[in-house]
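Tokens for chain A. Residues wanted.
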């Protein structure tokens, strides 16, 4: 039998040597998930999660590192990671906050203008919240690992929506004049990697403040996700402005220019993730993880009803 820690280390080693990156990058998603667990320990809402913060950080990378490397999954999975606000959506809905909670309503109102390539992250999150909530409401000792896996994976998508370039059709600077192609991976991966050590410490601190402010708004999960997209969208222009000003040649110099904004976005992602987890875990008053040895190194793909191929 492989010892649990050995299995985790094996998965992490594979992650670091084998695959391309997407979204916040490995370290960004890890920071979001681990900081969310810290928030819920410090506020007493779900203190038991802190014991599995490492596992949560690994599961947070599953959609990119594991699932996007499955041939039949790569295409359907892509649109589930973003929601690209654009002029077409604005002409129909006016504001991000007025996007319908129901995907069917969203699709029907757009009619012939509907295009899943505009992104489906809002509804992917709703599906996963429902799935994780179902596990939590009927939690047994045998399902503890499944619940930790579920909320860890969910944190990937909430983390994605905290990344401003996942909330705009100008997602890689390709619509800028002049074009700023490549800004997406530079911002979310290169810069986060450069700042990772200090971000890990600082995001946890700043996310507590963000958590308190966002919680005071008393938004349900659907409205919270729309608020998150709106918040991210407002930070698209600042990212592009920094890129135009400092360029990418000197990574250390550029990282200083981006640091405050990156820290803010990761902290907001952690705060929102904590609030979503808090709602899911409301029925779970305690969870004994002291003798919890479950670790799923390759979780089975969770098909979305929005992109599931016929016959799957």
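Reply:
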């Amino acid at each position: 039998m492989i010892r649990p820690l050995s299995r985790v280390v094996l998965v992490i080693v594979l992650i670091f040597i084998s695959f391309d990156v997407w979204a916040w990058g490995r370290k960004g998603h890890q920071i979001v998930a681990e900081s969310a667990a810290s928030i819920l320990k410090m506020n007493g809402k779900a203190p038991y999660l802190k014991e599995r913060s490492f596992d949560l950080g690994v599961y947070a990378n599953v959609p990119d590192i594991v699932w996007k490397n499955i041939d039949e999954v790569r295409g359907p999975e892509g649109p589930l990671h973003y929601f690209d606000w654009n002029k077409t959506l604005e002409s129909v809905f006016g504001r991000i906050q007025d996007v319908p909670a129901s995907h069917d309503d969203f699709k029907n109102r757009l009619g012939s203008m509907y295009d899943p390539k505009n992104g489906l992250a809002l509804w992917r999150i709703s599906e996963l919240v429902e799935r994780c909530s179902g596990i939590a409401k009927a939690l047994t000792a045998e399902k503890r690992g499944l619940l930790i896996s579920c909320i860890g994976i969910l944190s990937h998508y909430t983390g994605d929506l905290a990344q401003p370039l996942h909330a705009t059709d100008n997602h890689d600077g390709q619509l800028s004049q002049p074009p700023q192609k490549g800004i997406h991976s530079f911002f979310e991966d290169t810069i986060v990697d450069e700042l990772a050590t200090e971000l890990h410490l600082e995001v946890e601190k700043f996310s507590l403040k963000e958590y308190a402010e966002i919680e005071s708004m008393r938004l349900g999960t659907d409205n919270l996700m729309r608020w998150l997209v709106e918040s991210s969208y407002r930070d698209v222009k600042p990212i592009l402005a920094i890129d135009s000003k400092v360029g990418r040649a000197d990574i250390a110099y550029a990282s200083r220019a981006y640091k405050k904004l990156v820290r803010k976005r990761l902290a907001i992602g952690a705060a929102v993730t904590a609030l979503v987890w808090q709602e899911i875990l409301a029925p779970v008053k305690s969870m004994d993880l002291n003798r919890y040895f479950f670790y799923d190194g390759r979780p089975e793909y969770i098909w979305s009803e929005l992109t599931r191929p016929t016959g799957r």
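Residues 138 and 193 are 39 Å apart (CA to CA). The chain has one domain: 4-280.
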